[in-house]
Amino acid sequence: MLDIKFLRENPDIVKQNIKNKFQDNKLPMVDEVIALDAESRKTQQEADGLRADRNKISKQIGAFMAQGKKEEAEEFKKKVTAFSERLAELEAKETQLQEKIREIMMAIPNIIDPSVPIGKDDSENVELQKFGEPVVPDFEIPYHTDIMERFNGIDLDAARRVAGNGFYYLMGDIARLHSAVISYARDFMIDRGFTYCVPPFMIRSDVVTGVMSFAEMDAMMYKIEGEDLYLIGTSEHSMIGKFIDTMLPEDQLPQTLTSYSPCFRKEKGAHGLEERGVYRIHQFEKQEMIVICKPEESPMWFETLWRNTVDLFRSLDIPVRTLECCSGDLADLKVKSIDVEAWSPRQKKYFEVGSCSNLGDAQARRLRIRVKGADGQKYLAHTLNNTVVAPPRMLIAYLENNLQADGSVRIAECLQPYMGGKTKIQ
RNA sequence: GGAGAAGUACCCAAGCGGUUGAAGGGGCUCCCCUGGAAAGGGAGUAGGUCGUGAAUAGCGGCGCGAGGGUUCAAAUCCCUCCUUCUCCGCCA
N or C: which end of chain A has fewer CB within 10 A? Predict the structure, then answer.
């Protein structure tokens, strides 16, 4: 969400940005919202004037009443009645215009960072850097659910009966490995100075619309029937929402938090063969990191954040690469985003395991997250978020990369304390 | 979930239809007094946001938990919601 003043003064930048994101159908919105905004301000001016008159006259009526001059008071009442209809008309117009403006402003995408590659969809995302040697072993790597089943580690049939497709029972050592990864990731982030947090798993609609676009909301969020509550799609939602309507003293920045939560997603749309098992599911668990910082520091934090994820995967010996999201694939609220992808020796390609985003001031504007500087200046904060690790999906990468020729799975040294000292699953 | 009570500026708190843009304290800031301090005395202390504007100057709109409504006029009356507290119920 952009500042309407910025849009008013820089319509060409906004239009070019829309073109860069291949959303040409939104181009007319820019001129439309400028016209609506002009009309809205004109309406407000006239209405404010009438309201000022009314305030003055009301005061005089009050004075007359105090002196018991009823007739004079009645005379003055008529003065207000004379324009009250016009005022009501203007007020209705004001609300209507405000709503329209807001609706359009919510749909106009955030200005992307100049470094974002221009491209129309995910096929034009750009590989940035590889970390670790992507190895393909000389034995066959089975599909991840087959590996899990070998250890009685997953029961998808039961999950389908109980909750439907897109859910899972993790069992035994696989379930334990899942928890171990979460615990390890939590401590990994705490060691890097982040504050651990367990947030609400449901949030109100005003927070939902503050953290994401309508398109995302519709495709992702589960609503609780009969209540103004949604299941979170990621703890980013409740963690950024934590700061709704706040004025943070500048010296309390940056806020660096790492949160654990289950995540619930509708995952609307058709998915391919490679998305079976626990790759794309309605419920998963995730360790997340978020940062609230000064605007000038958000690019620095962006680099720091994705690096954390890379380091975590590397500490588990999983090869990864970073993939920059091109303009057309970038969600409307985001300034810049890169995915961390893990190596799949079975598919002989990388697949997404994390996503790091700089939202600029878009979420802060919607949620009113502001900062008060030492000099008294007030400004919107910048918000960023990134996956530390989402275990069901990362287990795919873990199992594939740590499967041994004898069919056992090696437990990385850093995970062993969380696995009761086990060195392998067999 | 049921029954009550309450939400006013940094904090406490008065007001319950009209010079209240909000009494009174406390705190904070400045001044007087003092060799310095304490005590005492005096003064100041809505912030936010929208419009207008070159303006962090004026002027105007909105603001007493949030949103609606009644009225010429609402912190004050009515409705809905949120939050907090007390009691009951239920429950890891």
Answer: C
Q: Are A189 and A215 part of one and the same domain? A: yes
What is the Cα–Cα distance from A3 to A13, expressed in whole angstroms?
A: 13
Nucleotide nearest to A44 (CA to C1'): B51
Nearest-angstrom CA–CA distance, A80 and A254:
52
DSSP string of A171-232? -HHHHHHHHHHHHHHHHHHHHTTPEEE---SEE-HHHHHHHS-HHHHHHHPEEPTTSS-EE-
pLDDT tens digit sequence for A272-300: 667 788 999 999 999 999 999 999 999 99
Strand B interface, protein residues by Cβ within 7 Å: A 4-5, 41, 44-45, 47-49, 51-52, 54-55, 57-59, 61-63, 65-66, 73, 76-77, 80-81, 84, 228, 370, 376, 378
* Residues of the domain holding A74: 4-107
Q: Which residues face A285 on adjacent strands? A: A262
Q: What is the pTM of this model?
A: 0.91
Quote the strand ranges of A294-345, DSSP E.
320-324, 336-344
Rounded distance in angstroms from the CA atom of residue A232 to the C1' atom of nucleotide B32: 61
Task: Give per-residue pLDDT as tens, A318-375.
Answer: 999 999 999 999 999 999 999 999 999 999 999 999 999 999 999 999 888 888 877 7
Q: What residues have CB less than 8 Å from A376, skipping those under 6 apart?
A: none
Question: In this structure, are A238 and A174 located in the same domain?
Answer: yes
C1' of B20 to CA of A318 (Å): 68
Total of domains in chain A: 2
Examine the domain organization and report whether A18 and A64 are in the same domain. Answer: yes
Q: Report CA(A61)–C1'(B17) in Å, whole number.
A: 13
Closest CA to A389 of A292, A259, A300: A259
Same domain, A298 and A394: yes
